Amino acid sequence: MKILADENIPLLEAFFGDCGTITRLPGRNLTREQVREADALLIRSVTRVDDALLNETAVQFVGTCTIGMDHLDQRYLEQRGITYTNAPGCNANSVVEYVYAALCHLDVDWRKRRVGIIGCGNVGGALYRALSAQGVQCLCYDPLLSEADNPDLAELEDVLQCDIVSLHTPLTTTGPHPSRHLLAKEQLRQLPPGAVLLNCGRGAVVDNEALLQVLRERDDLQVVLDVWEGEPVISLPLLERVSLASPHIAGYSFDGKLKGTAMIYHAFCRHFGLPESASLVELTPPVVDNQLRLVEGSDWQRLRALIGEVYDIEDDDRQLRKLGKQVRHHRVDLAKGFDSLRKHYPVRREFGNYRVLGAPKKGPLADTLAALGFKRANSID
After folding, report:
1. Residues 6+ apart with CB under 8 A from 370
2. How many CB atoms lie within 10 A of CB 140?
3. What's the rounded Cα separation, in Å, for the pair 167 and 222?
4. pLDDT tens across 129-175, in order?
């Protein structure tokens, strides 16, 4: 069996090595000729899978190791009888942790703010549950859900009045509730003074040109962008204006990537009737130095320091801005540089791998640490 895979999928050989011959290639620019003889295509979110890629190929199975499927032409795949699957929820926790790290970087204590969540599926739902567990007031906008699914549903206009607004919706252009440019100039201008806007879903859900215009008008807003319209060719003027920027890596925790690979592996084995010989538990490496100690200070200072020790989100911002400067001086190509940052992204482990020395047993900080996934460790451990 011939397996063609995005080079950024981890542990490919460990999971699929016994299933066939694996060829790794950059996922952004796969061609039909490269795919022609493959029986299975394993991708991430940057590969557009449609007639242009798969017509007259041998592909029987398409697996995307990501939550979203807006890059798959599902109608075409169904018409061709090609099995396709995604990895729902695999990197939801990674994106939630990105939100926490971004707010820590901005020195915005979410526990004292009202948080609006746009899109409450796998990622937005996970963020909503974690915040609710900390007693944070949330308002959620998701026209595909009912109050039975989420008691804190509200109209978009109400959600936009929150102190923090975090977007986690997939990109859709059809149907009764298309999400493309859901936040245009009119909606962006509704954000209250001092609001924080985060987009960790899909770039085109926010009209990037309108956002740039609004940021030129208002210096009170803090904007965090992990996703951008036109990726990998992003707006450099917008990059200069946002408070925190990253190259579509919110869901790039090592743990999330491994979950995605494992989920596609299970679906692959089911489709082809193969026995499963690899286990995520066995293949996930432990974190060697997994004990952390709380610093002195207020609960918020301790929390900021702890999250910053696990995830240095400022480095993500620094690397993307460095790329922007290099592009302006004509030293590198923007698209290639953007994809290179993703390809060579350092290993980031999730909070649940760490145990916190000196963590309180009870109280608000204990509740927050537990909601974030940190484990408590005794000083004698």
Report:
1. 133, 376
2. 24
3. 14
4. 999 999 999 999 999 999 999 999 999 999 999 999 999 999 999 99
28, 113, 168, 231: the active-site residue:
231
- Cα gap 8→116, rounded to integer Å: 32
d(CA 339, CA 151) in angstroms, rounded, equals: 39
Q: Which of 47, 29, 84, 46 is nearest to 249 (CA)?
A: 46
Report the Cα 178 to chain-centroid distance in Å: 20
The CB density around residue 375, as the number of other CB atoms within 10 Å, is 16
For residue 168, indicate whether it is catalytic.
no
The amino acid at residue 352 is G
Of 105, 248, 342, 348, the catalytic one is 248
* Torsion on CA atoms 80, 267, 142, 195, rounded to nearest 10: -120
pTM, to two decimals: 0.93
- Known binding residues for substrate: 45, 66, 252
pLDDT tens digits, residue range 242-293?
Answer: 999 999 999 999 999 999 999 999 999 999 999 999 999 999 999 999 999 9
Task: Respond yes or no: is residue 314 known to be catalytic.
Answer: no
Of 273, 27, 264, 267, the C-alpha closest to 4 is 27
Residue 174, number of CB atoms within 10 A of its CB: 7
248 is catalytic: yes
- Going by the annotation, the residues of the binding site for NAD(+) are 142, 169, 226, 251
